[in-house]
């Protein structure tokens, strides 16, 4: 179910990129929310036995770590940022607003996961 939601969000993001119907600030924030949600879902698929809290913590560490790499503008990272996939994966500029958006994205998707997943003693 979460993958379907992320899929719909991706389609909305792609449609916005193609047809430009969102204002700039909303577009950037929505992209960060989607990125964090996608990381959470990928980790959830790769590690289904992890608890929601562990998934959220690992996702937040990854997201904040990737955002921190944007403070460095050296050769290896700029090479990755030289194409669309690299820019989507690690971004191009550091922003405190991005940190907040990533955190909110993790909070939202972990809240949905906690509601959707059946509660078990150990996962």
Entry summary:
76% of the residues lie in helices and 0% in strands. By secondary structure, the chain is mainly α.
Distance between the termini: 18 Å
Beta-strand content estimate: under 5%
| Count of distinct strands | 0
Round the Cα radius of gyration to an integer and report it: 15 Å
Shape: globular
| Overall mean confidence score, pLDDT | 80
**Helical content (DSSP H or I, runs of 4+):** over 70%
- Helix/sheet category: mainly alpha
Describe the structure.
The protein is mainly alpha-helical and 123 residues long. The chain has one domain. The protein contains 6 helices and no strands. The chain has helices at residues 2-19, 24-46, 52-69, 75-80, 84-90, 96-116.
Features:
123 residues; mainly alpha; 76% helix; 0% strand; globular
Fold topology:
Elements: H1 2-19, H2 24-46, H3 52-69, H4 75-80, H5 84-90, H6 96-116
């Amino acid at each position: 179910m979460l993958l379907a939601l992320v899929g719909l969000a991706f389609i909305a993001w792609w449609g916005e990129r193609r047809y430009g119907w969102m204002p700039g600030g909303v577009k950037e924030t929505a992209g960060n929310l989607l990125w964090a949600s996608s990381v959470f879902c990928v980790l959830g698929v790769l590690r289904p036995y992890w608890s929601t809290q562990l998934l959220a913590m690992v996702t937040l560490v990854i997201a904040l770590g990737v955002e921190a790499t944007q403070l460095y503008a050296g050769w290896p990272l700029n090479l990755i940022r030289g194409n669309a996939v690299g820019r989507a994966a690690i971004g191009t500029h550091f922003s405190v607003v991005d940190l907040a958006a990533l955190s909110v994205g993790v909070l939202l998707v972990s809240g949905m996961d906690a509601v959707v997943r059946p509660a078990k003693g150990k996962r």
